[in-house]
Amino acid sequence: MLKNYIIFIFLLMFSSSLFSQGTFLTLEGTVKDNQGEPLIGASVSLTDVSVSSIVRGSVTDQNGRYLILAISPGTYNIKVSMIGYKTYESKNVRFIVGQKPTLNIVLIPEAVQLTGVTVVGARTSNFELKRQDVSTAVVAEQIENLPLNSRNIMNLAAVVPGVRTFTEIGGRGMPSAGSLPDLRFVNFYVDGAEWKNLFNGNIAGLGQTGSVLPQDGVQEFRFILSPFDAEFTRGGAYIINTITKKGSNLFKANAFMLYRDKDLNTRMPNEKIKSPYKRQQWGFNVSGPIMQDKLFFNASFESHNTKTIYTVSPGRPAYNPGIWDKYAKTYTAPTDNMIGTLRLTYVLNENQNLDYIWSTRTYDAIGFFGGINDISNAIHSVYHINSHMLKHTYILSPTTFNEVSLHYLRWIHDEPAYEDRPMYAYPSLLLGNSGFPIAIYENHYRLIEKFTTKISDFHTLKTGFEATYVTFEPWFPAGLNPRFNFLTDSSKVPYSATIGVGVYNPTNPNGIDARTNDKGYLLGFYVQDQWNVNERLTVNLGLRWDAEINTLNNTFKVAWADSADLRALLDPKFLNTGNRKNDWDNFAPRFSFTYDLNGDGQTIVRGGAGRSFDRIASYIGYFERRDASWRQYQFTFNNTNNLPTLDPDELRRRIASKTGGSAGAPSMNLLPDKLENPVIDQVSLGIANQFNDELGASVDFLYQNMDKIYVSRNANYLDKTINKRRLTSKYGDIQLWYDDAKAENMLIMTSVNYKTSSFNITGSYTFNAAKSTYDGSPSQNRPITSDFLYFRSNGEEKHRFVLSGYSKLPYGFKLSGIFTLASPRPFDVVDGRDLNKNNTTGDDYINGERNMLPDLNKIRNWYKMFDLRLSYLLDLKEYEKNIPQVEFMLDIFNVGNWVNISGYRGTKYDQAGNALTTFGLPTGYFLGRQVQLGIKVSY
């Protein structure tokens, strides 16, 4: 079966062949005379400003149409000429990743005498109007000029309509969009290759922990909310498409350093004293020729060294509010992030280029604590990421282009617990951590083939094929350090416990029985036709197909497959015998269009509809396999045959003795014989208008419906009404995995941009309504009897206003800033008393609502942020051309020192019914005002 699919894909790929939106663009249009007649044989040339030897060209056909394929994002000079007509020239035309530029030219006969002022060039500011998806480009000027607190390029999404971004907490932060968890349903493309990991669906290296690429190594990127281009996949929440910088004939170099410490910060509301905060960031970027006109390089490196602030603020039970006061402290913990890129470009000839792109990252941090999580609950994170890409581009003819890439991605993820100790879980405080260590080793070996050809005057066809071989070795010995659960904050003994023990090596202290290794295959194919129906209407029709093969341990026979007891209690489809089916039917049709309303390129109606699929995180398949050799035993203590204990060795002894009710019961994860991939259907409609070269505006509507989202349910929960497991006492929790969770998201996004040669300002407003049947982690331990109904999503942010821009001032000064005002988001609330007696408080909603919304009428509850940069450029080149430029920077983050609440406590009572006085109060705050000093030297 697999063989037939692969043969079918290759036949399609090579039997037929638009450009790749991922890394290249296509310029097209018409050349006519001043009477509106098409000119046949006019010469159109495009010269790369950075490498003048790279000249691309085309000749108009019988309809006066031209097409130039495989244009790298950048700045170009355009020249159009024909005998008997005045030559047309347009200088410094900018092409941005993801655009679909059309440029229609009118040539004037030589004999015609022009009066008044002759304007050379055409309006190119409307290129962005013709995008057919809901996306926003973040270009080099924004990357270089806007104040970026962490230098994490992903946080530049702050200027993107439809996206939620916030100041980092504990060095962590990641953009969010829609009603899906941003840590599972995102994708990140670098130069055409995806960096999505297999284990949990996040970016390799976890984008929330820090920048995965150096800021100065990125040329530009596009933030995509609706991937109507068939090239993109697996981005249910959003996709970031990034292009790294290339070298050129011009040698350039810069180095920077940024510095902050506690004296430049204000104290947060939950800090008793100002934290000893400190951060140093430095780096460099160097680019230029190795061989003039032939071989170029661009190298970039950054080091981020931070003492990150964490504030532990335990809950305060009404009967003894100060019980945990000794743990209420503010800590700093080290974070080191080193990132680098190297890109080599070799011009084989005028039609062929060869690129080698290397990206690397090393991350070392202590964190993931604060709020009710004590420092003993922290983890020590160490990541290593390496990406190597070799890309060959070949213009086979003026109308045919091929791109083939080999990509290797290596992700090493190592996270031990900060303290090696048992975990004590109280209602208001968590001490220790039983959920770690975790180690993950992933290798992605990928082939990417993209082929483009113009098949007629009105149709440009592109196809692409991707094949990836993945090896993955996860190790997650949950319960290696046991977890003891306490009923109240004053309880002296636990009421339950969980501990992990190996099946084959039960006395091994390193949990080696939890280690597995496996391999899988990812296949993808797409075909797309750009149909220029006429000069005003362009339609894209595309189809994408994806399959992930054996990424859920499909051929593994679970240890309980032959259990007569479980076969009698469960649907047999959950007891895999090694024949789990792969999901082959992921066909995603896509349609988009642009329509020039008045025929002048100024007012564009655009829209689209399509389907895309996302990934089922492979960790759920790993859990199923791990549970066969690494068992998590659950104890519910009593005063008869299973006495409470805090001794891990005593728990292990009871397990080994297998004595009656004291032995504990192993839990398990079970997947059905087939899980469908998450599917996202979406439709958009928008209109954009370029009033003049300086002013443009747009409005877009986007609706997304998500289905087949993976989520677990506990089939064998402890029924506290009878103090027995629902199915059998032989086992603990039996987590059954389903693909029936759902979500919906609706966005209305408006944007206005005003730009001159020295001033650029953009304002946007987003309205959002979102709902879902679950929020957060798919592993929620909800009983199978729980209601999974639609509720307002925790990600719903009704209103967000963003104003960003930069302006050149006299005497070498420059001012830039980002202002954000966003309405509060809902937060989860539960009663906490386990009202329905199913051994979890997660479904004990208050007044039938899953979450609560802070009062919109109180500005205190809104997110308010104004980041400002003032810079001064010392440029002495008019006196001595070899003297480097020096830029001095003053960054002020949260200029108004506004209080911004990062989260709220949502548990009203402990399980004994004692009121928690902290219910509805903040768990933490985003940082107050911070000042940063910096210097940048450029040559």
From TrEMBL:
Subcellular localization(s) per the UniProt record:
Cell outer membrane
* All copies of domain TonB-dependent transporter Oar-like beta-barrel, residue ranges: 243-308, 324-855
Which molecular-function annotation in GO is an example for this chain? siderophore uptake transmembrane transporter activity
* UniProt xrefs under Gene3D superfamilies: Carboxypeptidase-like, regulatory domain, TonB-dependent receptor, beta-barrel domain
Which range is the signal sequence, renumbered to this chain? Answer: 1-20
Q: Which Pfam families match?
A: CarboxypepD_reg, OMP_b-brl_4
Give the UniProt record's GO annotations in the biological process aspect: siderophore transmembrane transport
Xref: InterPro entries:
Beta-barrel_TonB_sf, CarboxyPept-like_regulatory, Oar-like_b-barrel, TonB-dep_rcpt-like
Keyword vocabulary terms for this entry: Cell outer membrane, Membrane, Receptor, Signal, Transmembrane, Transmembrane beta strand, Transport
* Main location, first listed in the record: membrane
Q: How does it sit in the membrane?
A: Multi-pass membrane protein
GO cellular component terms given for this protein: cell outer membrane
- Please state what the protein is called: TonB-dependent receptor
Identify the species of origin.
Stygiobacter electus
